[in-house]
């Protein structure tokens, strides 16, 4: 959560002929096509292996997997964040694959919950699995997924996504006729691509219709690093490795050089 205020966080375990290169435009198009194919396989797998906790499958006419149960979200934000990678965000015809997130926890000097319950931050203290959308710098709509139990005050910021379907709508909302990662690599870009406003705060993301988080396979490898744009926070929270991203994808926001294999 990028706005300008703390217990120490827990420690974490955690010479042959040169080949002819293809033009960059063809590489980008191939990457986008490969991403769509991967997402399609994920959606088929999600439908084929329903969880006993999941509600009924969504309409077969729509490109989507199974809706995640509310219990999926009712965990520590630090556990929920990496679990959201690879999942799908859907609003109407637009489906995005989540590629980068940040965790914000209770007693975190970078979390909006540090201000307590206010008119703006009240959704952060709502039930896990609800949306928290706030306006940043008066310009950008930032989508967060509320984590943990009601009253805790924790969330996961969606920092970047890759397009799965609805590319033309995404381009129209973003005002950019491109298939390059710049289209969705940044939390404000994600909010704009989904056509969000603060009215979406408190919306349950585990119910069919509107804005949903849908199941899909998790990535094979994950990158971790410090969160972005929280210089105002205490030093231990500035350096905490609570940013997570899918390894091997270009659909990640800057800076990338602070991310390391998990």
From TrEMBL:
GO BP term, pick one: base-excision repair
Catalytic activity, EC: 3.2.2.21
GO molecular-function terms, A-Z: alkylbase DNA N-glycosylase activity; DNA binding
The organism's place on the tree of life at top rank: Eukaryota
Alphabetized UniProt keyword annotations: DNA damage, DNA repair, Hydrolase
CDD domains: AAG
Catalysed conversion reaction: Hydrolysis of alkylated DNA, releasing 3-methyladenine, 3-methylguanine, 7-methylguanine and 7-methyladenine
Region of interest (Disordered), ranges: 1-26
Record's function text: Hydrolysis of the deoxyribose N-glycosidic bond to excise 3-methyladenine, and 7-methylguanine from the damaged DNA polymer formed by alkylation lesions.
Protein name: DNA-3-methyladenine glycosylase II
Organism from which the protein derives: Triticum urartu (Red wild einkorn)
């Amino acid at each position: 959560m990028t706005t300008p205020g703390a217990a120490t966080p827990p420690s974490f375990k955690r010479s042959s002929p040169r080949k002819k290169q293809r033009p960059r435009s063809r590489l980008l198009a191939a990457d986008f096509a490969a991403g769509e194919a991967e997402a399609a396989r994920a959606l088929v797998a999600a439908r084929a292996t329903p969880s006993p906790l999941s509600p009924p499958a969504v309409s077969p006419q729509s490109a989507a997997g199974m809706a995640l149960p509310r219990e999926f979200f009712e965990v520590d934000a630090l556990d929920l964040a990496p679990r959201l990678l690879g999942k799908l965000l859907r609003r109407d015809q637009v489906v995005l694959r989540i590629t980068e997130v940040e965790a914000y926890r209770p007693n975190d000097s970078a979390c909006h919950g540090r201000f307590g319950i206010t008119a703006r931050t009240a959704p952060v203290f709502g039930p896990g699995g609800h949306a928290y959308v706030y306006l940043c710098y008066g310009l950008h709509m930032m989508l967060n997924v509320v984590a943990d139990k009601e009253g805790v005050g924790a969330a996961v910021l969606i920092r970047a996504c890759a397009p799965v379907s609805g590319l033309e709508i995404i381009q129209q909302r973003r005002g950019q006729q491109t298939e390059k990662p710049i289209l969705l690599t940044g939390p404000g870009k994600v909010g704009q691509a989904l056509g969000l406003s603060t009215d979406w705060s408190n919306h349950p993301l585990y119910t069919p219709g509107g804005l949903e988080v849908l199941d899909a396979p998790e990535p094979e490898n994950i990158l971790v690093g410090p969160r972005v744009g929280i210089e105002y926070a205490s030093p231990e929270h500035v350096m905490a490795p609570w940013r997570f991203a899918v390894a091997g994808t270009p659909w990640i926001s800057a800076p990338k050089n602070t991310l390391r294999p998990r």
